[in-house]
Amino acid sequence: MTTSHYIAGRWVDGQGSDCISVNDPALGQPFAELMAASAEQVDQAVAAARAALPAWKCTSASERAAYLRGFAEQLGQRREALVALQMRNNGKPRHEAEIDLDDAIATFGYYAELAEQLPGQNRDVPLAAPGFTARTRLEPVGVVGLIVPWNFPLVTSAWKLAPALAAGCTVVLKPSEVTPLCELAYGQIADTLGLPAGVLNIVNGKAETGAALSNHNGLDKLSFTGSNNVGSQVMRSAAAQCRPVTLELGGKSAILVFDDCDVDAAVQWIVAGICWNAGQMCSATSRLLVQDGIADALLPRLQAALENLRVGSPLSEEADMGPLTSQAQWLKVAGYFATAREEGLQCLIGGKVLDRGGWFVSPTLYADVPEGSRLWNEEIFGPVLCARRFASEQQAIAEANDSRFGLVATVCTTDLARAERVADALEVGHVWINSVQAVFVETSWGGTKGSGIGRELGPWGLSGYQSVKHVTRCLG
Ligand code: NAD
Fold first, then answer.
1. What are phi and psi of 401, to 5 degrees?
2. pLDDT score of 1 more than 80
3. Does the CA dihedral 90-94-98-100 come out positive or negative?
4. pLDDT for position 121
5. Amino acid 119: pLDDT
6. How far apart are CA 167 and CA 169, in angstroms?
7. Pairing outcome for strands 430-433 and 29-35
8. What distance in angstroms lies between residue 225's CA and the mean position of ligand 1's atoms?
9. How far is the CA of 210 from the centre of ligand 1 (A)?
10. Residue 356 scores a pLDDT above 90
11. Which region among 15-19, 275-279, 342-346 has the lowest average model confidence (pLDDT)?
12. Which of 218, 303, 435, 445 has the most CB atoms lying inside 10 A of its own CB?
């Protein structure tokens, strides 16, 4: 049994009723287990964060920046163990696990720099009215709850934890029950750095533990990343208490390929957009919109590229794509394969689970999918791509925007004026032009419509944990 909760600067065993199995998806077998935190332990974590807040929010920005740099450095020192854990528990091939770790390191480094710039943002406000002065003060929101999913455990947590600590908030982090071990590294690092007790608390558990945190009346804000179904429950809890909430939810993003595009380059961007992390990305570009003039050349090349993708154990250096991370996700994707058969979709490649012991599926491409199809409209969270053809730029934009989600999109064209025009017209939070999904800490992350509320990363990520105060003085 793994000791798996970090509360008030101490490691404690779970006292909840749920036993959590931690699985190796390549084998479909558990390799560790732990007991979930009880509701009382969530109380203790929130109380510890509350007690730590007055001192932590008064630390200087440079002190907080030093801790954040410490997190970045210590993540680097734990590199091999964390890469190995993500490979084993998430099923990520080594190169993907390494990129995740580098992203988390870059995030802590970036918010260390932003923390150092904070004092300069507390500044005088020029007023038109005579006889008054005013100044802005950016204060921490307070005690924040952070609930995260399993698909990029180190990264999603870093995107919340680093700006929250930089702003001067204290936190209670609840990782996903599917990947409960990765984020324990943040507790171990807090210990190593001597972060004051209670500034960072980590409670592991399933829905019950998450609900105990999101319903807790001791929080000043909750930041959630996960499914729309749970996000909606989290938002209801926040509404009940009139409390701010940030939501990073699902997606059904489009990749638009125009006639003038280089076919090989387009294939590379399409495959990366749907097969990275075995398609388990909120930002997966799972709807391919391809222009009539290039479709007949592109689809066979895409089919061949997906066929040649090597699916295998993340421990094998040969593997381009690993298994799905959980059995639940594997069954969900298998369910969509069955729906596709019922709907009579034209499957060019894949469409089946692989009989290899673990939770593997084949990269899948459906062509000429009707716009009413469930597979065209619902988030699948696997390497399952649906394609439709379009005639005009206007039609492509309209079809891309015809979704209840609005997370990201990719535009592929050599006509850069058109690329920029289309990017501006897409109702999403982030657009890539002629690129794989490169994510930079300086740019924002988050979506429109059903993909969420608020933004992470960049200065917007920091402001999500800040409260704006003005002090106005009458000179008379
Ligand atoms: P999920 O919603 O099932 O779980 C997310 C977290 O919420 C987990 O920690 C879980 O234990 C917790 N939880 C479950 N029930 C809860 C409840 N009733 N109250 C409070 N917390 C509860 O999502 P998942 O399956 O872990 O992740 C996949 C989803 O996350 C996908 O929809 C994906 O698009 C989304 N996601 C979004 C982003 C983004 O940035 N927009 C990033 C990654 C994943």
1. -80, -10
2. no
3. negative
4. 84
5. 85
6. 6
7. unpaired
8. 5
9. 10
10. no
11. 15-19
12. 445
Structure tokens at 415: 């006509």
Distance 350 CA to ligand 1 centre (A): 27
CA–CA distance, 412 with 227 (Å, rounded to integer): 28
What separation in angstroms does the CA of 372 have from each of 5, 344, 375, 401? 45, 13, 9, 14
**Dist CA 23 CA 122 (whole Å):** 47
Say how far apart CA 275 and CA 306 lie, in whole Å.
9
pLDDT tens track for 282-299: 999 999 999 999 999 999
Taking the C-alpha atoms of residue 263 and residue 211, their distance in angstroms, rounded to an integer, is 47
Q: Are 383 and 363 in contact (CB under 8 A)?
A: yes
Question: Ligand 1 pocket: which residues have CB below 6 Å?
Answer: 147-151, 156, 174, 176-177, 206-207, 210-211, 214, 225-227, 230, 233-234, 248-251, 282, 379, 381, 407, 445, 451-452
Could you give the percent of the chain with pLDDT greater than 70? 100
Strand order in the sheet with 132-140: 124-125, 132-140, 466-474
Q: What is the maximum span of the chain, computed from C-alpha positions, in angstroms? A: 81
Task: Find the mean pLDDT for residues 403-419.
Answer: 98
Catalytically annotated residues: 248
Mean pLDDT over 382-402 rounds to: 98
What is the residue type of 256?
Answer: L
Task: List all residues 6 or more positions away from 235 whose beta carbon is below 8 Å from its beta carbon.
Answer: 245, 247, 453
Q: Model confidence over 135-146: pLDDT tens digits?
A: 999 999 999 999
- How many angstroms separate the Cα of 294 from the Cα of each of 276, 367, 414? 24, 14, 13
436-459: b or e for each residue (b if 16 or more CB lie within 10 Å)? ebebebeeebbbebbbbbbbbbbb
**Ligand 1 atom at minimum distance from 251 CA:** 34
pLDDT number for residue 76: 98
d(CA 473, CA 117): 25
Tokens of 213: 């945190």
pLDDT score recorded for residue 120: 83
Q: Between helices 153-167 and 79-90, what is the axis angle to 10°? A: 130
Residue 187, exposed/middle/buried by CB under 10 A (0-12, 13-18, 19+)? Answer: buried
